[in-house]
Amino acid sequence: MKSSLSSTVAGLLIFLAGAATACTGFAGQHDHFLPVNGTLAMENQIPLNDAGYGVSHFGHGAYMVTDGAYQTLVLVSTAGVVVVDAPPTTGHKLQWAIGNLTSIPVRWFVYSHSHSDHAGGAYLFADNQAHPKVKTIAHENTAAQLVAARDPHRPVPHITFKDRYTLKAGNQTLDLFFPGIGHDLGNIIIYAPKQRILMMVDQIYAGWVPFWNLAASVYVPGWIDAHDRILAYDFDVYLGGHMGGPANRTAVTVQREYVRDLYANCADALNNVDIVPIGTEVLTNNPYNIWAQFAVYLDAVAEVCYNATSAKWLGKLAAQDIFGFSHARTMVSSLRLDYDVLGPNGVQP
Ligand SMILES: [Zn+2]
Q1: What separation in Å is there between the alpha carbon of 217 and the centre of ligand 1?
Q2: Which of 164, 186, 216, 285 has its Cβ near the most Cβ atoms within 10 Å?
Q3: What separation in Å is there between the alpha carbon of 136 and the centre of ligand 1?
Q4: How far is the CA of 113 from the centre of ligand 1 (A)?
Q5: Ligand 1 center from residue 215 Cα (angstroms)
Q6: d(CA 118, ligand 1 centre) in Å
Q7: How confident is the model at residue 41 (pLDDT cuts 50, 70, 90)?
């Protein structure tokens, strides 16, 4: 890879120039994105009705409601309905959808994690904090985040737990488990054993590369480990909270393979891209500017990793061309800071 350094730097400058052009607005750039058709993303779509939502029925009272971009799990029990997440984009349509599924009232609301794009409609269900008809449940870290947020759209939960919590709701059971900090401080695995459904939000993006910067995870090693924690469960249906339809175990193993490739390619790049000629050139042109030197070097490493990863995954998982470089950058950062893969900045002789 050292021999291709000059082409790497030249390619990086072209890439950055392209990125700068893209910053003028996606509206004029959208023809340049690779098509989603033909990728694995097309396997999981479900149609939306005239009201703007779609429903999957998994049997035994379990449903997924989606607006095409976000997902909610609805579990109908003899003692009331359990709702997991209320994305604001689904909003009032979620109440409408549940009302069309059953006349049994909602009695429990579960936060998958704290983020407002999945929980910003929670207040539509958790209406009376003092005398709630609906009990809200979350991991204790999520509760702490919601206390700090003071967001009327995301009420502080009534019930919290540290490691696991089993919700017995009439004839239904929902197992909640905290696998550790990853995407968020309190993102949990939500498991319906009778229906063999596993939900973990912002973890697996079936048929797609993850959302920007490895799902914008607060702790990348925990997010990576969660792939194995999920696969330790016995499940058939996987819900990731995004992208329309339900997925399965294969979606988890495919994304795990992508992340492992990304990890290996970025580690290779860190160990092989030579910082000396890059640093010399940057410092010559920008005397004493250590950050400039480091920024150009790290982007060169990320680009080598991105290109190696794209060789296998471009056109297979959707949006590698859109978020792939952000994943390479984030993985390079995590490898350096979390995994002690420091390349030329490791322990000196
Ligand atoms: Zn999130």
Answers
A1: 8
A2: 186
A3: 18
A4: 7
A5: 7
A6: 7
A7: confident
Residue 122 has pLDDT above 80, yes or no: yes
Q: How far is the CA of 20 from the centre of ligand 1 (A)?
A: 27
Domains (ranges, CATH) in the chain? Answer: 2-22+259-344 (no CATH), 45-246 (3.60.15.10)
Q: List, in order, residues 6 or more apart from 159 with CB less than 8 Å away.
A: 135, 136, 137, 138, 165
* Residue 301 in tokens: 């490493």
What global pTM score does this model have? 0.90
Which ranges of the chain does DSSP label H, i.e. alpha helix?
5-22, 92-101, 116-119, 140-149, 212-216, 220-231, 249-272, 275-285, 290-313, 320-337
pLDDT digits (tens, 9 = 90+) for 70-104: 999 999 999 999 999 999 999 999 999 999 999 99
Residue 234, pLDDT > 70, answer yes
Yes or no: say if 70 and 118 are a contact pair by the CB < 8 Å rule: yes
Query: How do beta strands 164-169 and 71-77 pair?
Result: unpaired
